[in-house]
Amino acid sequence: MNILALHSKGVTAAKVSKLTNASKRTVYHVLHTYSKRRFGSGLSVRQMQTPKRTRTIRRRHYQRFDPTSCRIARRGKLKNRKIDGAQTKSGTRRRLSKKKGCKLLQAIGVPAKANLEEQKTFLETNLNPIIEAAKKWGCILYFLDSCHPVQGAFLTYFGCFIRCVLPTSSGRKRYNILGAYNPIAHTMEWITNTTYINSLVVCEMLHKLSALHKGIPIKIVLDNARYQRCKLVTNLAAELGIELVFLPPYSPNLIERY
Fold first, then answer.
1. Residue 189 CA to chain centroid, in angstroms?
2. pLDDT 10s digits, 86-139
3. Backbone phi, then psi, for 173, in 5-degree steps?
4. By three-state DSSP, how is residue 169 classified?
5. Confidence of residue 207 (pLDDT cuts 50, 70, 90)
6. Cα separation of 39 and 41, whole Å?
7. What is the pLDDT of residues 214-235, one digit of tens each?
8. 40, 153, 197, 232: which has the fewest Cβ within 10 Å?
9. Rounded to an integer, what distance in angstroms lies between the CA atom of residue 134 and that of residue 79?
10. Cα separation of 92 and 152, whole Å?
11. Across 45-167, where does the E strand assignment appear?
12. Are 255 and 231 in contact (CB under 8 A)?
């Protein structure tokens, strides 16, 4: 009732919001509800209605607003930009950008040395035909890659008066995984250790895959790591009848995506 009493005395909705510690949306809702039900003869909704000229300006701003012209500042805020010569606030720009479908997305990095044309050619001429042949069971396709997660605790913040001390592993102890993923059958073969991933481990994986698919052509897509391109690995693959397909330099990681 305080909202109605203040508004009936000629106090604007903005001042009513400050005096009653209520949001403007709540004040407008109360005034509109009571005015619609005809409670109180002194009530008027004229003060809370947006003037026609203001609505026209907002509509023109929305039509002429270009989200791509706004530069992203620190903490995801849009820098000042002018529309029709008038300075716009950050809240107005965020609202207009949201209506236009613009989102604040985190940027992702791409290796500067990557040759996109070479990767596109490899995808169209080499990789796609292999995938189509694997879908028709003309061969067995594997993506081979390794990852090295670090054994350790990922510490965070705690609400406490004394700093918490947690026992963790010392140094940079790693758990190495060499995995081979079949995207057609959605199966995974892997070899793990706590030492190193080298050419001997890759040869062990080739023997394992050859034993699983006897008499069936096997094609493995892998990156250009030295321990995978050495003569020991290539000669063994030729003996086992396995075709190694090496990706172009600086191509995206494979197994780490899964």
1. 28
2. 555 666 666 766 776 767 677 777 667 778 888 889 989 999 999 999 999 889
3. -75, 130
4. coil
5. very high
6. 7
7. 889 999 999 988 999 999 999 9
8. 153
9. 51
10. 45
11. 82-83, 86-87, 140-147
12. no
Identity (one letter) of the amino acid at 111?
P
More confident residue, 257 or 75: 257
**Token duo for residue 51:** 């003037």
Exposed (0-12), middle (13-18) or buried (19+): which is 221, by Cβ within 10 Å? buried
Domain ranges of the chain: 1-49, 116-152+172-257
Q: Is 125 exposed, middle or buried (0-12, 13-18, 19+ CB in 10 A)?
A: exposed
DSSP 204-227: HHHHHHHHHSTTS-EEEEE---HH
Topology (CATH) of 116-152+172-257: Nucleotidyltransferase; domain 5 (3.30.420)
CB distance 13 to 7 below 8 Å? yes
